[in-house]
Structure formats: structure tokens, C-alpha cells
Amino acid sequence: MKAPNFSLTDQSGTRHNLGDYAGKWLVVYFYPKDDTPGCTKQACTFRDGRDLMTALGAEVVGISKDSARKHASFAAKHGLNFTLLSDPTAEVIDAYGSWKPKKMFGREFLGIHRDTYLINPEGDIVKKYDSVDPATNFQEVYADLKDLSAR
User: For residue 124, what is the DSSP state?
Assistant: First the structure.
């Protein structure tokens, strides 16, 4: 399946499109909110493993509804070394299928599911990770990337 296109602004105000990553592996992960415990854990594991990803020709992009300004603060606070994109309307989040019903305190509402997508250099989604564990998501994606990029 082809990855849905996007055109979103990052933490420094630069616009990114899916086409900017053509010819590279791309890890796109969706997360609920900057500076929450799970989201921070997940971001820091991708930060710490970024060199391993780039050695395999991959880039990492995190996407949430938070503003570019909030992303800048989050990235600075935790030394994040990859792109965070702002999707305030959840249009891209929805296009990828990660804007879904959630339940909290007995109430149901639409929200961002913590999903990750591995996209090959041709722009195809080759693996989707549903409702991931923020502590182990990086290791799962890295193992699959290592395997797939060696083929």
C-alpha cells in the first residue's frame, strides 16, 4: 500500500512532504502528546537509536497534533535529533488510519493511536505497528528495518 502523502511543518518551521524522503527508508510514528511519559519514552528511544537507523538509510519522523512551537520545546528539552511534524487538523493522522476511537475513564472519543509505519524507499508501507509499547517500539522497527533493508 502506498503511504499517504503529507505536507506538514516541523519543529523549526520547515515544511516536509513525503516526497522529500523518496529513495530512503522512513519510519513515521504517531503519538498523542508532547512531554507525556509514554511519548517522551518513545521519542527518547528513537533519539538514542537514530544513528542505527541512519546507518541503514532510514529517517525518523514523529507526528502529533501539537503545534510546531510545542514540538520545538519538546525536542530541545529532550535533545531529540529527528523531525517532529505538526498535524493540528489530524488530516494526515487520519489518512494513515491512526485517528480512531479511544476510551478513557469510561468515555469514548476520537484520538491519536500510538501507531508506527515503516515505509520503503519506493513509498510503500511495508509494516504497520498498531498501538505500540513506547519502550519497545524502536527495537521492533529497527529489527524489521535491518531485515528488510538487507534484502
Answer: B
What the block records as the C-alpha cell of 103 is 476510551
- The answer to whether the beta carbons of residues 128 and 117 sit under 8 Å apart is yes
Domain residues for the domain of 126 are 7-145
> What SS3 class is residue 99?
strand
* pLDDT tens digits along 41-87: 999 999 999 999 999 999 999 999 999 999 999 999 999 999 999 99
- Looking up residue 102, the CATH number of its domain turns out to be 3.40.30.10
Cβ within 8 Å of residue 39, ≥6 positions away? 31, 32, 33, 64, 134
CB distance 90 to 4 below 8 Å = no
Question: What's the number of domains the chain is made of?
Answer: 1
Give me the half-sphere count of Cα atoms (radius 13 Å) on the Cβ side of residue 49.
Answer: 23
Query: Would you name the residues annotated as active-site residues?
Result: 39
Q: Residue 2 has which C-alpha cell?
A: 502506498
